[in-house]
Amino acid sequence: MKEDLYDDLYLEEKEEKTDFKAVLFKYTIHWPWFVACILLCLAGAWLYLRYTAPVYNISASVIIKDNDKNSKSNTGIVDLEDLGFYSSINNFDNEVEILHSRTLIRKVIEELDLYINYAAEGSFHNIELYKSSPIKVWITPEEAQKLSMPAYLNLSIQPGNKLNVKVSIGEQEYIKQFDKLPALLTTPSGTFSFTPKDSIDIKSEQKIIVTVSSPYNVANDYRKALSIEPTSKSTTIAQISVKSTHTQRGMDFINKLVEVYNRDANDDKNEVATKTAEFIDERIKIINGELGTTEQELETFKRDAGLTDLKSDAQLALSENSEYEKKRAENSTQLRLVQFLAGYANNPDHAYEVLPVNVGLTDTGLAELINRYNEMLLERKRLLRSSQENNPVVVNLDASIRAMRSNVLTTINSVQRGLAITQADLERQAGKYAGRITNAPGQERQLVSISRQQEIKAGLYLMLLQKREENAITLASTANNARMVDEALADAIPVSPKGKMIYLVALILGIALTVVVIYIIELLKYKIEGRADVEKITSLPIVGDVPLSEDKGKEESIVVHENQNDLMAETFRNVRTNVLYMMRSDEKVILVTSTTTGEGKTFIASNLAVSLALLGKKIVIVGLDIRKPSLNKAFNLSHREQGISQFLANPEHTDLMSLVQVSRINANLSILPGGPIPPNPTELVARESLPQAIDILKKHFDYIILDTAPIGMVTDTLLISRVANASIYVCRADYTHKADYTLINELSEQKKLPNLCTLINGLDMKKKKYGYYYGYGKYGKYYGYGKKYGYGYGYGTENVNKK
Predict the structure, then answer these.
(1) What pTM did the predictor assign?
(2) Distance CA 730, CA 753 (A)
(3) Residue 796: band (very low, low, confident or very high) from pLDDT cuts 50, 70, 90
(4) pLDDT digits (tens, 9 = 90+) for 590-640
(5) Could you give the CA distance from residue 585 to residue 262 in angstroms, rounded to a whole number?
(6) Domains assigned to the chain
(7) What is the DSSP string of 623-642?
(8) Which of 183-197, 291-305, 541-555 bottoms out in mean pLDDT, i.e. has the lowest?
(9) Distance from C-alpha of 59 to C-alpha of 489, rounded to nearest angstrom
(10) Bond prior to 159 in cis (omega within 30° of 0)
């Protein structure tokens, strides 16, 4: 039956350990801390939102044209793809990478001067100035790129265009005063120019902070803030967005990014036409000089020879030969063009330069091959804008270019040999007709030769002029690669900081910080404060929680009296009930000890004895703390010189019962004080006279309470424990160290103290947490609010043995 009661009480104690209401109360009693910390965090959040520049998302939609459709349909490139010399990649993805490249973004940064930032100095935070600074600071991008760290310029602008400048670059400082603007400040890191804006009139001192950073670093920052994503998988429309603290700056950045991208793309597309224009202009200059020389020779010859008309027979002979001469002229033109192309292509300096193609070549196969070769060179340059030469795509493309170049050179040589063969054949045919005019005057032959040269030069000159106009039309008709669908526009609501989220985080942080602080404070407490602390450090049953006596000056006095129903009386009734249920009916000896002095073991033993006496039991309390007897003071005994030490020292000649004094508090309570302090207390309690004394007392009393010495200071209590049936270890709230339970737990494990339990003494009821426990929490169960008291003073289920 008793075992079942023990199990029930143990389960109930386990339930109490999970008393979440108690845990909640441990924090809610500190509600002022929560309120203060939450208000502090909310104030911090308000200050953060007040002085943090909002970040906006600026976005634009851009359609990117796919210019590779025609080139990919080219059979030559398809053949190269089949051979593995050329890898086709998605054009849209390439263009997105170019838009996101550091090189392109850096150009935008330099053109918009975004590596130079302005801010007006404020009381709590600086106000960003974009295109509204009263003065413009300039340093070349090349000099700014050399800065190892940002340069900070503190400008103090005075009325009358006066300026005080302080430049800080790392640990170096440069201070200069200018009485007139514009002005220059030369430093080892670069030259800074200061130019006032005409539209701004300085009437009072203004302080401006200018930050100059490396364009490369600024480009990296913008690259991180830049996002380019397709609007869907089946479209070439890209959503370009950037996050910025200034909406106008973000819109300018996106617009300039698209502008620079189109400009670079057009430069790439126009490279072939530009090279062709240079070639045509060079040839026109040469042919123009040769044509002028030929016309001058013809004029001189006619004037010197006095020729005015040609003979009909010579004209007839020459007319028969005109067809072959015309073919020879065309053949000569083509041969010279091919020879020039061969020299241009074989020049090592032109290894990765496009070849002129629109120069009048009649061989369509050669012209088509050169076009494909030029397209591959342009593709290589575009890839190098966003990658390195060791990129696998570039390496494969280089191999394709070398193969294509070899093919072009072979074709040029083949065409050149064919033209040479044709030239020899035409010369043989012309030789036949030359014999027919051998009899013509030498002057006539010379005149015809000069005229023929003039016709050749004039035809070539007109053809080059026509090609130049065609090439100019090609340059003028180049379309942009990207077109704005939606102009850059900033969102109305900033993306950060988010006010609601910041306040929510501040609220949670305020609560969390308070909980952490309270938890750390509780964690750092090294003294026992109540039942919860004891339950965490020991598995010993707790037989009671004794509140602090109202009269602190009389802590060792008796607080339990007959016909009294106050808190202290109820407390000791509970202790009495729990202790009795831990003992069998034949067990009578209760040992009371503590770790050190001042924990109230004598107070507990004395009042427990009184409470037991009120049950009508014969009780004797024995003062076995013979080193420092305390029962005389507790019970205000008259014969203080008598005590158990006399019997222990000389049991044969001492009457033990004559040393027992009847208490004036209750007739059922007797006291056997410690008596005179002996020189050898340990040896006395170790003698067999102690068990003899206990046997004598058992014959006269129902229960014997032993008030022993502190177990943490002397070994007397361990020697006395051999005569005890139950042991009560007394700890005191806000006094006993938690580490003291290490010794008690060891004694319990080694079973050196019989039937060991613990009791908490000195709970300060004025503290809110104890008031909660006694009024409405777990301790209240002992005093009328729970089943532990429901059966009366001596019949509850208070057995808390956890063994």
Answers:
(1) 0.52
(2) 13
(3) very low
(4) 999 999 998 889 999 999 999 999 999 999 999 999 888 888 888 888 777
(5) 103
(6) 2-52+498-524 (no CATH), 57-68+113-269 (no CATH), 271-476 (no CATH), 568-755 (3.40.50.300)
(7) E--TTS--HHHHHT-S-TT-
(8) 291-305
(9) 6
(10) no
